[in-house]
Amino acid sequence: MGRATRRIFLAQVGASAALSGCLPEDAGRRLGVFDAIWRTVRNQYFDPDLGGLDWPAIRREWRPKALAASTESALYLDVLFPVLDQFRTSHVILTPPGDLLLTTGRSFRLPRPQKGRSFFMITPADEAGMGAVLTWTGAAYLVEDVSRHGPAWAAGLRPGQSLQVAGFEGPNHRPELRLAASNGDRFSIRWAPRQAAPANETRPLYGGAAYLRFNSFDRQPVASAVTVLLGTAGPVVLDLRRNSGGLIREGWNFLSAILPEGRDLGRFKGRERDYLMNAGAGPDKFTGALAVLIGPRTSSCAEVTAAALQHHGRARLFGARTCGSVLASQTYDLPDGGRLMLPYADYLTPAGARIEDRGVAPDVDVVPTPGSASKGADPALDAALDWLRSGQ
Cα dihedral sign for 157, 161, 166, 172? Predict the structure, then answer.
């Protein structure tokens, strides 16, 4: 992972409270945060071997660096992020207690990108403003989609490109993202953030099918999706390409509205016990034909859903391989107001296969191309509709 120099800016990292400046240089507070993270990982991480890391040695090496950190920003950027970046599984996410103030000329190590996510400073409003979807695949940012009328298209971005972040300035009214391709091409995008598309969408499709999209497995989106499913007599295209997952119970609720009672949904394997899942009973089940759209951003519960439906032959999957980020996780509060997400169990499909870091492969591999994007087409959706119309 490279190092980067940034101008003065506030880097939003996901918490709601804003810092007016750096915290006091309180050595005890810094050590308290480090020790809390170290103990939590030792006691709660799903793999008791901690991925082969020598955790006591890491404490001996990095605890003095936590003590020497001059500011809270330095503690997170120079110590805590690098320590946790040594874990190569999903759902290891550290959220500082607010905005980080980075000083002029400050050289720092960026947090390891999370598979299935955009650059960590890019929000949904930024993606809507730039008109592009960039997803980290483990080696580069894949350009999944580009709006032909947006700043990203004007800058030269096209679906299918693999890019690295060369620089970022913001946030302000017009952030700038600089990207580099392996062939030497450079791209610079400036945009004004704007309201993102709704997270849930339903609409009729040509030929009598219904389109259903929801972007998280939380209570309200799942309840609405189940209502749509059970109220639909014809075929459905379920779009999980932007679904980042959510609550395990909501994934169970959704699958229980489709699969017969008792069907194996897989299991989560923890340190001391396994968590078995079987489809639940219900007065109604969706019985229509089902096509599911998946891609690199399909994560967590969305991947479990796709894997279970595919295993039981209940749906056909179209698109691209999913993220491979399926560990069950829990979030812990830190003494300074930050938060640490850690995985406590690994997911195994009904066939006993791991999909962490591997993802779920589609039945029909279909990805956007520069040509399809220039026409405003959606090849995966078109392929799903062709299959539904064929009656197979």
Answer: positive
- 10-residue mean pLDDT series, the chain (392 residues): 31 32 64 97 96 97 94 89 92 79 45 68 83 85 88 93 83 77 92 84 90 96 96 95 94 98 97 94 93 96 98 98 94 94 97 96 90 82 95 74
For CA atoms 349, 351, 352, 356, the dihedral sign is negative
Both tokens of 159, joined, read: 């679906």
Question: CA end-to-end span of the chain, whole Å?
Answer: 46
Going 83 to 89 to 95 to 100, the CA torsion angle's sign is positive
Q: Which residues contact 106 (CB under 8 A, 6 or more apart)?
A: 5, 6, 73
Name which of 8, 15, 245, 19 is nearest 114 in CA terms. 245
Specify the pTM: 0.81
CATH top class, domain 200-390: alpha beta
CA angle 376, 378, 383 (to 5 degrees): 145
